[in-house]
Amino acid sequence: MLRCTWQAMRLIKVQEFLAMHRQIMQQVDTQIQIFAVRDDAVTKYCILSHRWTEGQEVNYEQMKDLVKLDNAHEILNWHGYQKILKACSVADGLFEYLWADTCCIDKRSSSELSEAINSMFRWYKNSSRCYTYLHDTSDFPTDPDFVKFPNSDGWPEWFSRGWTLQELIAPSDLQFFNKDWRPIGNKWSKATELNRITGVPLRVLMDGLSSYRPSFAEVMSWAAERRTTLVEDEAYSLIGLLSINIPMLYGEGKKAFQRLQLEFMRMSNDQSVFAWRTSKVGSTETVENTDGGNTQEMGWTGGVLPDGPVAFKGCHNIIQMEPKEFYRSLSTMWESDAQALAANGECETLLHFTITNLGIQIHLPLRPYYGCPSVFQVALACRRRSNLMPLTIDLAAFGPFYYRHSGADGPTQPFARNRSLRLAYQGETHRDITFKLVETTALHKFRRCLVFPSKTRSEGGSLKLSSSNPLAIVVYANASNAFFAVACGYCFGQDWVHVICDEPRDKPLLYAKQIYKRTWNRGAEYARLMAEACSGKTVQPYYVKHGHLLGTTWTVRIACGGWEKSNNRIVTVDVAEFPGSRCKTLTWEPMYVL
């Protein structure tokens, strides 16, 4: 374990390593010590960047005791050992020390590993030269080759890995070597090609991050399509690029990326952290139409923080906005007074985030959607380079929290204001909910004719909803082509049911699509109303809602119930004579089961 008060790193002594290798090859006993601990701020050293090879890398313990190992000659032939040997051969006569991540960190020590990961960007930045080894190519690539590199987007594997992003950006002197360790260019001479391959701007490639501070969203976009062996390393490999430090907790999974974002927000008021794309990457679903037509994207709700950099794909041109610019542009876009949009009427500054275990406290300008009092359009102090107007996202209110929401459609109300919001950075725990629709004999010749989307239909005619399929529409029709629909939804961990009795103007499928779109917009409000109807009840009732069939004396009555902790809901559907003033249409009323 490294125990130094100054900035310490364990380095390979180049000439000693080469001497040890020769003596092992000659089967001569040697006591050469190949490691030294030095201060990276004042030491001249070179550093290795490479793609790890599973089962072929030499760790610190093996390298330190190599002479004593029975399989030393076997290790000498490992691909990982050969990389270090070749790198030392290139460095010999130029540098006294070399650093390699495979054997210069004692990974048995969690504290040393955590310190090394938090220091790694600085180590690459302070190196005098970085040797970058492309093990799977003879020439520097100029065009993607999907035949040769099918698993790394058509480029050599080094360009697809998470850790190599900081290893590309941090060093000022970076030289590329091919699979035979022949030089094939440097970062300056290949800057145009590197920009095309990686998406990293030319000025960052040429000057690093010292002269340009990209937005959080832009940095994440560079990492969006890169991969790591361990899911936690998606976050840990980015801490140096964001100038933050977090402890390593391998085993926490996707929570690592959440911690990365929260720590960044403690250091910055960059609102582009919320500007990830509106399609939930990895979970966005498309709905197959029953007639084989076009597909429709599903909406979703969840926490305001994504669980990986892939959510920022396409955010490469997002830049931060200064407060004056933000409020001036927003007042133009929303046709509102700038001071009314700013927190406390102050347009000179943006308030910082407050991070607690209850959520993220922040002041943001917003305005609600018409007909959807729980869903808001929210403006962020960031924009696309090609557009002077601020970016907006949608948030849905549920209880004391605001959640990220997609799929909202339609106009927003003109009355914008600034509000203090508590953002939920974690979504509700997702579970599958089954709705069993029971049609009584009193349907007066109405029959179930369509379920949309069809994938929500399960055996026995039930509906199965989940976080990826949170809404289903069941259309009923009679011989006179009169329709009504029952919507079953699930968001914020709350199931809800609604009845729609509009007079349709289209065929059942088009009617279902229209109802789906409109109901999704209002789903957050339906979930809130359902939660309010159920709150404070000591006895679990069934809840009844009526919908008046236009132009008739009939009402559609739905009764919904089920045990509170059960994942099954029973929805009874019938058609009865409209009771007039004796009931409130589209309002839940309890009906207790004795």
Brief sketch in words of this structure:
The chain is α+β, with helices and mostly antiparallel strands. The protein is 24% helix and 26% strand. The protein is built from 14 helices and 28 strands.
3D shape: elongated
Quaternary class: single chain
Sequence of strands across the biggest β-sheet: 2-1-4-3-5-6-7
- Computed over alpha carbons, the radius of gyration is 30 Å
The largest sheet, given as strand count, sense and whether it forms a barrel, is: 7 strands, mixed
Number of strands: 28
Question: Taking all residues together, what is the mean pLDDT?
Answer: 86
Low-confidence stretches: 279-297
N→C terminal distance: 69 Å
| Secondary-structure content class | alpha+beta
Percent of residues in beta strands: 25-35%
Structure description:
The longest helix is centred in the C-terminal third of the chain and has 27 residues, at 508-534. The radius of gyration is 30 Å and the shape is elongated. The strands form six sheets. A seven-stranded mixed sheet has the order 2-1-4-3-5-6-7. Residues 279-297 have low confidence and may be disordered. The chain is an alpha+beta fold.
Write the layout of secondary structure elements.
Layout: E1 8-13, H1 14-25, E2 35-39, E3 45-49, H2 60-64, H3 72-76, H4 79-91, E4 97-99, H5 110-126, E5 129-133, H6 164-169, E6 174-177, E7 183-186, H7 191-198, H8 202-207, H9 216-223, H10 233-236, H11 255-267, E8 286-287, E9 296-297, E10 300-302, E11 318-320, H12 323-334, H13 338-341, E12 354-356, E13 359-369, E14 372-379, E15 382-384, E16 392-398, E17 401-406, E18 417-423, E19 433-439, E20 447-452, E21 463-465, E22 471-477, E23 483-491, E24 494-500, H14 508-534, E25 542-548, E26 554-561, E27 568-577, E28 589-591
Helix pairs in contact: 1-4
